[in-house]
Amino acid sequence: MLEKHISASAIARTGILAVAVCVFSFPALSADRDVPVQLALSEIKKEDLPKAAESAPAKPGTEQKPAGETQKPAASPDNPAAAPDNPDKAPAATDDGGSGSSNSNVAMPNAKEGAPIPQVEYDVSKLPFPVQKMRELILTAAKSGSIEALRPLIGSGDDVTMLSLTDIEGDPLAYLKSLAGDSDGQEILAILVDVLESGYVHLDAGTPDELYVWPYFFAYPLDKLDAKQKVELFQIVTAGDYDEMKQFGTYVFYRLGITPKGRWRFFVTGD
Predict the structure, then answer these.
(1) d(CA 260, CA 251)
(2) How far apart are CA 71 and CA 65, in angstroms?
């Protein structure tokens, strides 16, 4: 509620009376403004979901370019540098997520309409050993309470773990801290634990994009969840988040992917 404070002063100059009225508006201050607000795990800063009336969810492989990114200018005699890359130099596909496909595509929610419901697994002993090992390392680091323990697992250069659907600048751990509701990033560590202790799915077996992804909601239609699975979902998000996600038919909170060779591929949120 806004309060208006009006002050007026009359000044007589050369026999003429001038009245100045200044109106100032101040935002209402909460009496408990110095008390930090406790956020639910799913209420930390994240890429905002568009309203259903404004935008439908992007399908994997068709997402829009991040804000601020411009189209590459067409090649011309005056601008040869704008020529397309040599197709002979395109990155070759690998068995560890190194294909020419966009990283953000791989991390996009994968509950395709009409696709068979994926097999949900809870038994981590079924994971390839490199995947088991990386999962254990991430869990151990997250449970330590220190976000710095994630640094050697995130890596660097071309193998760095993707932490956002758009490019980030600076230290990746500083970025993770900026997403948390606390200054030490322990809220993010708690989410990592919850995600990795949920069920998982094995996707795109035998392809360059083969992955093991947590939680399984990443590739599971929300309208197919049974009562037990909804309880598992509410261990990660709130009921309000669930209602919002139903508008798009897919899970868009934090998910984590590990390649068969044990590379931590991504840990992102958003659609």
Answers:
(1) 23
(2) 9
Q: Record the pTM.
A: 0.64
What stretches in the chain show pLDDT beneath 50? 1-42, 44-95, 97-101
- Residue 96 is predicted with a pLDDT of 54
Count CA atoms within 13 Å of residue 60 on its CB side: 17
| Percent of the chain's residues with pLDDT above 90 | 49
Rama region for 233: left / alpha / beta (φ>0; ψ in -120 to 50; rest): alpha
Residues of the domain holding 174? 41-47+94-268
Q: Is residue 264 part of a domain?
A: yes
Closest alpha carbon to 47 in 136, 93, 98, 109: 109
Q: What is the pLDDT of residue 103?
A: 59
Q: What is the distance between the alpha carbons of residues 73 and 76, in angstroms, rounded to a whole number?
A: 9
The pair phi, psi for residue 173, each rounded to 5°, is: -70, -35
Q: For the chain, how many structural domains are there in total?
A: 1
* Domain assignment present for 5: no
HSE, side-chain direction, 13 A CA sphere, residue 51: 2
**Tokens describing residue 130:** 């490199």
Domain assignment present for 215: yes
Cα-flanking dihedrals φ and ψ of residue 154, to 5°?
-70, -35
> Per the domain annotation, does 173 fall within a domain?
yes
CA–CA gap between residue 190 and residue 117 (Å, rounded):
28
